[in-house]
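Following up on my earlier message about PBG. Here are the inputs again, as you asked, copied directly from the submission form:
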Amino acid sequence: MFPNHRPRRLRTTPAMRRLVSETAVRPNQLVLPMFVKEGATETVAIASMPGVVQHTRDSMRKAALEAVEAGVGGIMLFGVPTTRDAVGSGGTDPNGVLNAALRDLRAELGDETVLMSDLCLDEFTDHGHCGVLDAKGNVDNDATLAVYAEMAVAQAEAGAHLLGPSGMMDGQVAVVREALDAAGHLDTGILAYSAKYASAFYGPFREAVESQLTGDRMTYQQDPANIREALRETTLDLTEGADLVMVKPALAYLDVIRAVAEIADVPVAAYQVSGEYAMIEAAAANGWLDRRRTILETLTSIHRAGADIVLTYWAVEAAGWLREN
Ligand code: PBG
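Thanks, got it. Here's what our run produced:
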C-alpha cells in the first residue's frame, strides 16, 4: 500500500517511460488501403476522407512505391469501376479495374510488399450489395459464392498475395480456398474478414467507392451488439482455411479484437475504417484534437487490444512517425 507503492516512479522521466513501455506498433504491421478509379486521368479527392484520394493507375503505382519505401507492411487495394451491373462483372473480368491495378502493382513491386485485394462485389454491382440478388431481391449466399470463386482466381492471377473476402457470405473462405487450390494458386493466402460488423463507420468509404447501395447490409454483416457471433464466425473461417483473420471496424470493437486474438492461432488484423479516419481528421481540422497524438494513440490501442496488423489510411504517415521513435 501507499506510501510503499508509488506507481508514478515509473513515469518520472521520458527514459523511464520508454524503458517500461509495453506496446509499440511497428511500420511493417501497418497496411495501407488504396482506391483506384477506372479511367481516371487525375486523382480525385474524397471529401469525407481529407488526404485520401481515388488514384489513377499511374498515381497508384507511385503512391504504392512510396508506401513500401516508408516501410509499411502491405497494401490493400479497392477498385472503383466506371460501369456496374447486377452480378458485378467488373470484379471477375481480368481487365476490370481492380485486377488491372493488381497486375500493375505486382509488376512494379514484385514481392517487395504484400499485395492484398478486396474480394467483394459491392464496388462492382449496380445495387451496391456485396453479393448477387435472388428473384426477390435478397442477397443470394450460394450464388454469390460461385462469383467469389471466380473473382478469387482472377485476383490471384493478377498478382495478389492475399485475398480479403469481405462480403460476409457463409462459406466464403472455404470456397475461395478450394478455387485457388484447384487453379494451382496454393501460395495465395486468405485474409478473412471474419468479424465484420454492419457499421455506420463505413460511411465515408461509400463515397470513396461511389457505392450504389440504398438499403443496408444487416442480413450479412454482424450486429454491433454481438460478440459470441464474432467468435463463431472466426472459428468457422479458421476451420475453412483462413491464413489471417480480421475484425472490423477497430476502435469501437477492441473487446472483439481481444476475444478473437485469444482464440485465433493465426495473425489477427483489425481495420481502422473510413469513419474512424474521418472523425479524427475532422476534429483535428477544427483544432479540437492533436492529430498526431490521437492517431498514434488509436493505433497503439488497437495493437494493445490484440491486433498484430492494422489496416489504416494513415499507414504511410504513421510509419514515418514510428520510425522516428
Ligand atoms: C466491402 C468493404 C467495405 C469496407 C471495406 N470493404 C464497405 C462495406 O462493407 O460497406 C469499408 C472500409 C472502410 O470503411 O474504410 N467491400
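One observation from looking it over: Residues 141-158 form the longest helix (18 residues). Hope that helps, and feel free to reply on this thread.
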